[in-house]
Amino acid sequence: MKKHFLYVSILAVAVFGNETYAQSDISMATHWYNRSNYNPASIAKPDYIYLFTNARSQWTGISGSPTVVNIQGSEYIQSLHSAFGISMVCDNIGVTQTLNPLLTYAFVIENNRDWWLSMGISAGVFSRSMNGSQFEAENSNDNFLFTDLERTTRPDANLGLEFQSTHFIIGLSTTHLFSAWKDTTLFLNANHQYGYVTYKNTDPEIYNYSLGLQVVNQFNRTIVEGNASIRFKKQTGLRSGAAEIFNLGLSYRSSKELTCMFGVNITHDFRIGYAFDKSFIPGFSQNNTHEIMLEYRIPSRASTSEANNRNTNFWYY
């Protein structure tokens, strides 16, 4: 069969371990800016319609290596204390492709001036296809070569809680609920559990910084990731206050991966970002990963939280 599928399979085993064969959640470095892929509660963002997309090319230099495109949109409705969202994830690796469309709902359990607690659920389908026609046999008379197009579609759901205050974000979530407590197979998505905490310093007027820690568990595999980032701002006058200019970030995963992130604000509500991953797995250090991000906010009267006199200055996440 094609070399690219063999190389990707070997690398996947090296990264994910030989005891876990199910599909892992998409790995996106810019999840520190948008967590709704794995926690639907995080779409409860006040004051605007939120649009987000990121695209990731992993392990460059290996033909058939993973590529991911993620598109999301959501809006918080203040009168309903609820947020509604939609997302689509397309993940390609070797001869396989997955599509994961989801509808998301989040309800604000507590909407306080100084803190915010929301619960969310996503529901949709997880579809995986395998195109056997992309295989190349070294022996054309190999009767056991799979050459058909095979597709599997199953219901999918995620569940999560998130707490936010002036200086902290704390979240718990679980993904692919219908796969919980099921045996792993090569072409099924797997249940994951997430826990994270972020401290964000929002007091300085020239910059903000944050420190985050995330733990992800998938069966007997646990990944720990730490993040530090800083956002630089400029003064625009007493009426407008400070405006963000650009941000820098650094993350490290216990799976031996270092990420550098950069983002720049084109306007007050439009930001673009770039992330570069460096793997330290022996034998694969030359195969880097690139990711781009677009984030756009549309101010919405229906989403505004000013009626509650909340301090919205710290809601830059």
Please provide a written account of the structure.
With 317 residues, the chain is mainly β. The protein is 4% helix and 54% strand. Strands 1-2-3-4-5-6-7-8-9-10-11-12-13-14 form a 14-stranded antiparallel beta barrel. A hairpin with a 5-residue loop joins strand 8 and strand 9 (207-218). Residues 1-21 and 307-317 have low confidence and may be disordered.
Mean pLDDT over all positions: 81
Q: Helix tally?
A: 1
Spans of at least 5 consecutive residues with low confidence? 1-21, 307-317
Strand content: over 45%
Main beta sheet: 14 strands, antiparallel, barrel
- Percent of residues in helices comes to under 10%
Shape: globular
Written as H for each helix and E for each strand, in order along the chain, the element string is HEEEEEEEEEEEEEE
Distance between the termini: 45 Å
Number of E-type strands: 14
The CATH class: Mainly Beta
Count of separate structural domains: 1
Supply the CATH architecture.
Beta Barrel
Instruction: Classify the secondary structure makeup into a structural class.
Output: mainly beta
CATH superfamily: monomeric porin ompg
Radius of gyration: 21 Å
Strand order of the largest sheet: 1-2-3-4-5-6-7-8-9-10-11-12-13-14
Briefly note the CATH topology name: Porin
